[in-house]
Amino acid sequence: MSTDDLALLLKNFLETEHKVIYRVMANQDDILDDVWGSDSDSEMLSNENAGYSRDLQKLREQHNKRGYLDGIVSSKETNLQQGFNAGFPTGATIGFEIGRLLGRLQTLNYKYGQENEQLKKDYSQALNDLKIGNMLSKHVFDTDYQLPEDGKHPILEEWKIKVSSYSAQYNIIRK
Q1: What pLDDT is stored for residue 129 in this prediction?
Q2: Mean pLDDT for the stretch of residues 29-54
Q3: Hey, is 109 helix, strand or coil?
Q4: pLDDT on residue 41
Q5: pLDDT (0 to 100) of residue 111
Q6: How high is the mean pLDDT of the chain?
Q7: Percent of the chain having pLDDT more than 90?
Q8: Rounded to whole angstroms, what are the CA distances from 133 to 3, 47, 137, 138, 157?
């Protein structure tokens, strides 16, 4: 997935979330109505709204809600971008390594898979193990979304060893 695709996906997500939050905020008027229906309009006026017509009060409430909503969306955009900026280098490095390992395994499987059943099984298993959902799952990273102390991804390291073993078995020199 390219950076442009990610940016478009992020934009669409934020626009959709913005619409959902706005709908929820707009429907809160019904939720916040007096449960018993016994208070008159004059009793519900706060000191802050005293002297304003009902239309002006409604307009003021809408602007307050809109400002609140805009603040939430803006905050999410900023934090999401910061998270993307922080996580992209790690994800790109992992993605590059996955591609390199799968490419080598695919080549080995193409050349030697007919005679080596275990290689064929390992290639099939690698296609499953090295899926992005498995590689970026929560159990791999700590609470700060960092790799373990040694900085090595455990699944990736396991497959590096297997691919190196097959490369050595078939005298494939990695450059």
Answers
A1: 93
A2: 54
A3: helix
A4: 46
A5: 93
A6: 77
A7: 29
A8: 18, 54, 6, 10, 17
Confidence at residue 128, expressed as pLDDT on a 0 to 100 scale? 94
Taking the C-alpha atoms of residue 3 and residue 8, their distance in angstroms, rounded to an integer, is 9
Report helix, strand or coil for 17.
Answer: helix
The crossing angle, in degrees rounded to 10, of helices 154-169 and 117-129 is 160
How distant is the alpha carbon of residue 172 from its chain centre?
Answer: 38
Instruction: Give DSSP secondary structure letters for 20-35.
Output: HHHHHHHTHHHHHS-S
**Distance, C-alpha 89 to centroid of its chain:** 15
Q: How many CA atoms lie within 13 A of 11 on its CB side?
A: 6
Token pair for 52 = 């304003």
Question: Which structure tokens are listed for 150?
Answer: 């040694």
Distance of alpha carbon 48 from alpha carbon 60, whole angstroms: 11
- Sign of the C-alpha dihedral, residues 41, 45, 51, 53? negative
Q: Please tell me the least confidently modeled range out of 28-32, 91-95, 156-160.
A: 28-32
d(CA 18, CA 12): 10
Residue 106 · residue 123 · CB < 8 Å: yes
Cα 142 from Cα 124, distance rounded (Å): 28
State mean pLDDT over 110-131.
Answer: 94
Residue 150 falls in which region: left (phi positive, over 0), alpha (psi -120 to 50) or beta: alpha
